Hints:
Chain A is an alpha+beta fold.
Amino acid sequence: xxxxxxxxxxxxxxxxxxxxISIKLLIRGGFVRKVAAGVYAYLPLGLRVLKKIENxxxxxxxxxxxxxxxxxxxxxxxxxxxxxxxxxxGPEMMKLKDRHERDFTLGPTHEEIITSVLRSxxxxxxxxPLSLYQIxxxxxxxIRPRFGLMRAREFIMKDAYSFHTDWESLDKAYKKFYNAxxxxxxxxxxxxxxxxxxxxxxxxxxxxxxNVLAKSGESTLLYCDCGYAASDEKAEYMLFDKSNSVExxxxxxxxxxxxxxxxEEVASFLEKQPGDIVxxxxxxxxxxxxxxxxxxxxxxxxSKLKAHLGDQSLRLAEPQEVLELFGxxxxxxxxxxxxxxxxxxxxxxxxxxxxFVVGGMKEGTHYVNACYGRDFNIDEWADxxxxxxxxxxxxxxxxxxxxxxxxxGHIFKLGTKYSEKMNGYFTDENGNxxxxxxxxxxxxxxxxxxxxVEQLHDKNGIIWPLSIAPYQIxxxxxxxxxxQIMKVSxxxxxxxxxxxxxxLLDDRELSPGVKFKDADLIGIPLRITIGRKLKEQKIExxxxxxxxxxxxxxxxxxxxxxxxxxxxxxxxxxNFLEVR
Amino acid sequence: xxxxxxxxxxxxxxxxxxxxISIKLLIRGGFVRKVAAGVYAYLPLGLRVLKKIENxxxxxxxxxxxxxxxxxxxxxxxxxxxxxxxxxxGPEMMKLKDRHERDFTLGPTHEEIITSVLRSxxxxxxxxPLSLYQIxxxxxxxIRPRFGLMRAREFIMKDAYSFHTDWESLDKAYKKFYNAxxxxxxxxxxxxxxxxxxxxxxxxxxxxxxNVLAKSGESTLLYCDCGYAASDEKAEYMLFDKSNSVExxxxxxxxxxxxxxxxEEVASFLEKQPGDIVxxxxxxxxxxxxxxxxxxxxxxxxSKLKAHLGDQSLRLAEPQEVLELFGxxxxxxxxxxxxxxxxxxxxxxxxxxxxFVVGGMKEGTHYVNACYGRDFNIDEWADxxxxxxxxxxxxxxxxxxxxxxxxxGHIFKLGTKYSEKMNGYFTDENGNxxxxxxxxxxxxxxxxxxxxVEQLHDKNGIIWPLSIAPYQIxxxxxxxxxxQIMKVSxxxxxxxxxxxxxxLLDDRELSPGVKFKDADLIGIPLRITIGRKLKEQKIExxxxxxxxxxxxxxxxxxxxxxxxxxxxxxxxxxNFLEVR
Lengths: 580, 580
């Protein structure tokens, strides 16, 4: 492609509402344009990157025998009523009515559609296992769309669904997808970490996330040299199960703590440590209210609580709700004197404690010397702790390390959640009717583009890995009115294209400075500079992440071509940055 | 691909609501499934066809220097308010609100979006000409979705937009697209006809449609051996402009015509011919009501009327409206005694007439012996006639022929319609600001799949042209428990794949009858049958549209391979059918 003909309007400044380096650089480099909050147009360079990502994902899906199909974007509401998710999904689901006032959603995911398409036709055990995927546009009506393509409202995903007659078959497919996802990551060439993950509202029993490492990542990941890795929502830790072996329980006492609210304030006021306080947090779910207790110096992990109680609709009670329920502001509630039928779930961090501080259930007071078993009863013990860097690895006990990631892939064992609700049954060898077992496997295609830029960039612009660069080589012809320079530039352009390199020929009538700046901004892996040195039979080869090197020009460009091959074969910009 | 692993559920019967042979066969063949009215899922075979169509279109767009991009599906209402089309487009436009109650549409077309994306950046004459395209999902909320993929509500289009500083440049681009579209048709291999077309609500000055010929086509096309061809909405005819050279105008008379309503009824009642009647049709548009007159035996072409009056919002007045306006039922209105300010537009067919019949403007009456000029005045003459087979060609005067087509491509010279309204201005060589000139170019991707089946099928199923067949070759291994048959089948499968043929190996444990039926239904161009004849060293090659031929199997399959190449190279199923 000739740069003079390419529509790639580069900008000096990013728009003021671009909030992450990736969206700033993608806009400045002419890859994308914002059309509305969270809604983007892909210009030719952006689409090239997108197609390369799509093709890598497509090839790896095809390789494991997953068959490409294409499901509709608008989905009838009835299917979501069947699965029970029409209301569950909440305002993040974009909804519309057709001219006959029939409800539709712009699909955020396609479990309902695929189950409905297959349910009348996938009937005999002979038809299993089966897996289908699509690469398509999806929607999520984010309340505040941000981070460019990372939290867009319209985005491109690959989603796959697998169907099985038994768990063993699902396990096999899950492993295949796991390996395919690892290959996709390897082929793209970004640093990544696979972690155990929470399956959240999608449901199911086992789940892994494939994260690209980046400082700006929204996911906190914990990992250990022993191989253990998990998202913070899922991470466990080695529990040294100590019960409280208190020598003496001191008498319970209600003390005045006027105006103190946070754990830190209470601890400081009472001259104690945060670890001596037990936090009481009230949640509301499908079965009403539940009180949770956790040590004051650790954070409660809501995903673990939801999983423990099997209730994805759980939410922290609002201050106003708490006030109406107990007549006490939220900072002063506690486990003593609760209604008998209110369940108390305590985190394991509470177990070794005695003589601790809890809310006084009266404004401006706390109890000191509280002890469970004596002053109140705990109904259930659970691991509710948000694990942090430094906590002991649940596998080996060594201190966990922490890093930040951007989730690109997420795979789930769904089990029979959808098939049971949506009549997805098959007949087994013995003539019995059973719900089939499903897996689902998502990959963020447009997000991959952003994640790559978040991980790989420098002050001059984007650094694309070779695998997804819009062009592999840019030829910067420095003086377009110099016949010799243009002849060599055109020659090389044609020769390299014949060798199946993707080449951008910068034939614009612009200064060398502007051409170099654009080449760096756009992030092309290899720049060939053809300028004054040509008089000495030399041109310059420069990888995006290294300094330029002169190469001699002979008649058939043999040295140049050899060097280009060598440079590109060894180009690994992921090594260039210290991320993890 | 092994048929045993392919998800292509074939059906014996089409669902009862499948209304065209194409959707019946596409569903029966396992290519698509209906999810809701006008909303379809593409199963693996269907997606393969779709991708092949996309790739042909993509290659021809790339070849003319049109650059691929990707625009959002959801479009903010503000842009449509700017162009004035938010209300114009009517209930066919799918609309939705996001969680902040902001209006969006699911784009039926992308003139607004592309203009808004480019307007702030396409500013200097140096940046022109430019053309961009996308292949994407589009929406049209049909009141009664029907004809399968032909009038779906969610469908896939290629849409391109070109930008120019002068008309000459637009003309050049238009010609390029015209040629590219002809190449796309040639490459797909269906019989087609390019016709002059009406540009309708899209607007602009010149427009052509690319139609696949099919008996079930919704478009009526007129054409002539001299090369003239037009859609019936656009078609003109050679006008032998005769004014009325009446010897004697008879006296106007109002006669009783109780209970007669249609032209035929009136003619029969008065013992006249339909050509002696002048029909009066009342329309309503932006400037109020307008009365149109046309000879009783021809049909009024609303597209011509809209174009003549420059008002795309024109519609026939409702019976109730007419009754309220004139106090007369719709069958008895006429041009005599109309309010002075009501414009009368008459078709050229009225010009030679005198002493004709018109509505009496009183229920149950008609005027006979009416003459324009004497009894009422005509404000404008226009060509409003729906041209039909047999009318004289406007170029050469010979009788026009008629046929039916399915519109796949439509190209338009838009001019400055959108750039003027949406601030799409550039600075020319002299520093003057001017609106840029646009063209737009659509191609129905998913519709191409249906149109192909409409044109090419027989009682046994689909007949794909080689270019878009999901697989080129199917190997029917007739007895999967016969080792020799399976060895040859597997050998050929591998050899043909290595030679880059797309091959489906029917390795299912099913009877020969079922395998043959499926191969025909799915429409694979070449079937290789490997069965009993193998004992005599023979296998059978059969093109979808011819009878089988035995070919000898030698050790390296050289004769088989040679024959396959020859058969596929000469496969042209379009010649097999008499369409035009």
